[in-house]
C-alpha cells in the first residue's frame, strides 16, 4: 500500500527575461530614432511564456520628455505619461505606440510589475521633420541673417539691411528652416542646403560650410553657413534648399487693409578692404632703386591689407 504523499503547489509568475521589446522604428539597442509627428509602434513579445502566466503578467509602460540640446524640461513638460498597452493576443504579443511632435529625447520605461524588461529604459530620439517654411507664398517662420562671425545675430530691421564685411573676416549666414511643428528641420548639410557668394566683377564663387546650430523649437536659426571672402567687391548671395531658392521677406505692412509683402532674394554682401598693413603695402616708382645725384625720381605707395 502506497503511503500518502503531500504536495505543495507554488504559484508561478512570468519573469522579465521571458519578454522582449521591438519597434518598427530604427532601433539600436536601447536607442530608438524617429522624426516629429511619426507614429512609433512597439511590440512586447512573450512567446516562450506559459499562456496562463502571460495573461497574468502586468506590463506597464511610461514615457516622459527628458530634454533637448542637453537642457532638461521643467514643470508640466517633465510629467510622466502612462501609455496604453494592449492585452496579449494569440501571437503572444502586446502593443503600445506613441507619437511626439516636439523634437528632443524621450525616456520610455517598459516594466513587468516593478522590473525593467528588454533593454528598458529606452531613449526615443525625435528629430525635426522635413522643412516646409521655405515653400509656397506663405513663408511663415522663415528667416535669414548675414553678419560678421562673432558679432551676434542681428535682429529687427538690421536683418534686412545691407552690411559691409571686412575682407578676410569670417562671415556667418544663418537660415531658419522649420518643420510643420516648428522644430528645426532635418536636412543633409552636405547636399541639401547651398549658400553661395558670387563676386560680381569676376564671377568667382565661394560656397559656405553648413553646420546645424541646435535641435528643437526654440527661437533662433537652426543652420549656419560660414565663409571667408578674401577679396573686396560686391558678392551676390544665394541660398538654395534643393531646387528651391530661399529668400528673405524684407518688408511687411501688417497695418494695411490689404497686407502687402515684398519678398526679395538675399541682399548682396559688400566686402571692403581691411585696415592697411604696412608690411604688405608696396612702395613703387623710379626712386626705389639706385639713382644718381640730380636724377628726377617718383614714388608712390600702394596700400594693401593683410
Précis, in short:
The chain has about 300 residues and is mostly beta strands. The chain has one helix spanning about 50-55, and strands at about 20-25, 25-30, 30-35, 40-45, 60-65, 80-85, 95-100, 105-110, 115, 120-125, 145-150, 165, 170-175, 195-200, 205, 210, 225-230, 235-240, 245, 250, 260-265, 270, 280-285, 300. It is about 0% helix and about 40% strand.
Strand fraction equals: 35-45%
How would a textbook summarize the main sheet? 7 strands, mixed
* Oligomeric description of these chains: single chain
Q: Mean pLDDT, rounded to whole units?
A: 80
* Span between termini: 112 Å
Give the SSE order as H and E letters.
EEEEHEEEEEEEEEEEEEEEEEEEE
Q: What level of helicity do the residues show?
A: under 10%
Shape: rod-shaped
Tally of contiguous helical segments: 1
| Count of distinct structural domains | 3
CATH architecture of the largest domain: Sandwich
CATH superfamily of the largest domain: Immunoglobulins
